[in-house]
Amino acid sequence: KQAAYADLRDVEPFTRCGTRIHILMNAGLRDDIAALKLVGADGVGLFRTEFQFLVSATLPARERQMRLYRDVLDSARGKPVIFRTVDIGGDKAVPYLRTSLAQDDENPAMGWRALRLALEREALLKSQARALFEAAAGRELNVMFPMVSEPWEFDAAKTVFEDQRAFLTGRGKPMPSAVRYGAMLEVPSIVEVLDLLIPKLEFLSVGTNDLTQFLFAADRANPKLAERYDWLSPAILRPLRRIHQATIGSQVDIGVCGEMGGRRLEALALLGLGYRRLSITPAAIGPIKELVRQIDLAELTEAMTGWLARPPSDIRVALSAWAAARDI
Ligand code: PEP
Ligand code: MG
């Protein structure tokens, strides 16, 4: 299998019926980027910028952030990279910011984290904005905001970025050739107002790790709840289909960047729901490319549509039988 996946490295993943599926990778550290070439990903669909903050004893200075982002873009050699602004706080507490469970939050996943924290600690977001603009000078920059729960949060974060862009432009700094803004969809509230958010966005990335935890009210890290935290439950698949459908006819590129997309049956489910962009862990890229090459989307979509309308007792079992019957 290892050899077979290596052979797929330079092969673009088309389905049997001829649709190009975009398979990107999730990353967070400078060293992760080596995998981009190794596994033949289409780019980095999620760069978790908070990793640098988490491994650092003090707040990383703007210059250090800039060097990391520039190195990542250099290594990506023109392939797209989506930088997610810091998702610290909650379970990703950093000691130099007062966000830890013991200090503030009784319920860290739902606490003062990610964009909530960044909009209040505006200096943090400003310095990240400047570091990103500087690192991407002359190239395309993709910025994604985490934990957007209401459309105004996206507006506020984008305004911070655009103000910094205007400031730097005014000082004659070289700017990115294009800047694209997107949001993560990982909080259920935003699903209810998605029609209001979509016109503001260039891209949308569904974070199924957190979205699932919030939809089930089941902590993603609690092994006692692992069986309830089921990506193939109709309670997850139906909203995922609604979310995808809401973007049809808009200019928004939609994808999934949760770990779900890196698992065989879950990836099949996402493709059957209409998703064509998956950002996954590097080790899963070979196997998912191979999977993509074996499927017929019309057949898969029809099967998924049937299962969602009249769910069998276990969609996992149904999907698994569907795949086995086709030697997938
Ligand atoms: C997610 O929530 O699905 C996601 C991709 O982000 P993270 O795992 O970093 O919370
Ligand atoms: Mg998340």
From TrEMBL:
Q: Which domain of life is it from?
A: Bacteria
UniProt-annotated location(s): Cytoplasm
In the record, which residues are listed under signal peptide?
none
What is stated as this protein's family in its record? Belongs to the PEP-utilizing enzyme family.
Q: What is this protein called?
A: phosphoenolpyruvate--protein phosphotransferase
Organism source for this protein?
Alteripontixanthobacter maritimus
Upper taxonomic lineage: Bacteria, Pseudomonadati, Pseudomonadota, Alphaproteobacteria, Sphingomonadales
Gene name, Swiss-Prot/TrEMBL: ptsP
Section covered of the full-length record: 425 to 752 of 755
